[in-house]
Amino acid sequence: MYKYNNFDEAFLAERNAQFRAQVERRIDGSLTEDEFKPLRLMNGLYLQLHAYMLRVAVPYGTLNPNQMRALALLAEKWDKGYGHLTTRQNIQYNWPKLRDVPDMLDALGEVGLHAIQTSGNTIRNTTADHFAGAAADEIEDPRPYAELIRQWSTDHPEFQFLGRKFKIAITGSETDRAVTKAHDVGLRMVRRDGVPGFEVIVGGGLGRTPMIGKVLRDFLPREDILPYLESVLSVYNVLGRRDNKYKARIKITVHENGIDTYREMVEEAFVLRKQEFDGTDQQLLAEIKEHFALPAFRSGDTAKFDAAYEADPVFRAWVDTNLSAHRQADHTIVTISVKNHGETPGDITAEQMRVVADLSEEFGYSELRLSHEQNVILPHIHKDDLPAIHARLRAANLATANVGLISDIIACPGMDYCALATARSIPVAQEIATRFDDLKLEHEVGDLKIKISGCINACGHHHVGHIGILGLDRAGVENYQITLGGDGSEDAAIGTRTGPGFSYEEIVPAIERIIQAYLNERDTADETFIETYRRVGMAPFKAALYPDAAKKVA
Amino acid sequence: MPRPFTPKVVTANDLLEGDVIYFTSDDGWTREMSGAELLTDEAHAQLRLLEAQKQNLKIVGAYLADAKAGENGPEPTHFREEFRRKGPSNYRHGKQEAAANV
After folding, report:
1. Which of A213, A241, A317, B31 has CB 3.0 to 4.6 Å from A401, enough for a Cys bridge?
2. pLDDT tens, A170-215?
3. ipTM exceeds 0.85
4. CATH tag, A303-395
């Protein structure tokens, strides 16, 4: 993975020193809050309901063990012993004190991490397929491109004051695990005549006005990625609205002007921008690619794995749910669930961080990933190491076999932490997970993505959940709207609202009725929730959710 | 008839700690909502907000929050202020943690 060079280290050290001075000037009164706020936001420091919150960037979700240990140190030394994995592959701390934040940033800097551009109207952390570099179905590892974008976008003078935040996601597979169609720009690797390039998707986004991105360029040669992105951004920077915050995202710009107009303007800008690139970016990309060379995978038989799989049903259940196909047959990708039933989705303790760091070092070629689904990934594991890894994970309370199931819920922090939230989301996730665990229905129900947001900004991606839950404030009371049929994959779709919302007390029973309706409706045990929904539509779910309405009509 | 004024308290976050604080009648700050000054007159409430905001060196983001008179002082009327007063519901962190350690 990428290692900072002298330039990166010096840049970050200087930036951290600047922020330390800014904090001092805020405290001594030289800066007002209005002056300080944009400075702290540029460095990832928010003020939430109960405390400050520091959001640390994990570029394209990739970490090495020492970085993970530094994240553990931050949790222990300056926070309450845990960190929260976010839906954009970052990690945030809910309880830092203002005076400690410069020290936290310095500790991050020592391991090549930062919190730059994790907030504000800038280009945010570029997210990537969390199986990048490991997935069996991958065309090419997208992370060198993501790192190139990180370096290009960090402190890019033209794009520090965009009309609104700007999020890019990239995947190296045609299978979309990075929700590229719900980003301002999505880059999906495709092949044309055997040559890899990018399908460029623009104007996707969730939030108040959810939209699935549109194809701006069906094939972009890989070497054009920066001049093309710069063209997309420059058009947005000029054309995007600044009169209304809610109409400022690129999805609105594209929608109001039309994709064809937007494309023409981008292509026009691209002709000029491309001339400004003298090949330095390609040299840099070549250097970056060396950092992402595949590890030398060990080989060997899988006898220990086969024996454990045969003998141990708990191990078998975990293997069946938490592993994904690796590019090398005797290896596998392990998703470590950070979704224990009844616990906060994505909260990981300092001790757990150290356990996964150790495992990655001992067994996983020192690679770790965070997923936007708020789990941790060991991307390269030889199958024969799985029994040992599983035992260590069990001891650390990290071996829950629920990846992709009903309790593997994405939930934003909601009203428990977030200043923008209109309702809680964490306790709803906790209760749904606990309920279906009690019913022992989880494995019976199978593949299902529930996503919960505590406000319309949709950090919990509820629009693309097979079941989406949106928490709102209705006349001073928490109220939860349900959407069905959303999908964040390459077949991306925005979910459809079922009807009136449910109170906090009613929402878990309502989800249970939806699941019961699915179990009644599905053709076979192999038909997943989303497949059943697509086949039978909304009606049976509506009938299950609103039995009184059905009676009235009858 | 203008709508009757809903009583308010001035609340903010502490600059250094980041935690929730409330403005008191003697121009100080308290960590307990019950110790806040309950403002029942609209014009006076606006004035008190301005006075609170002057304390830029101690606080961030002062605003007027709806409140009502309770037995032991002001109480929240909305669940958001109830969470701010107490802490998150997934852990006993925040003010409820401090209360438990007394």
Report:
1. A317
2. 999 989 999 999 999 999 999 999 999 999 999 999 999 999 999 9
3. yes
4. 3.90.480.20
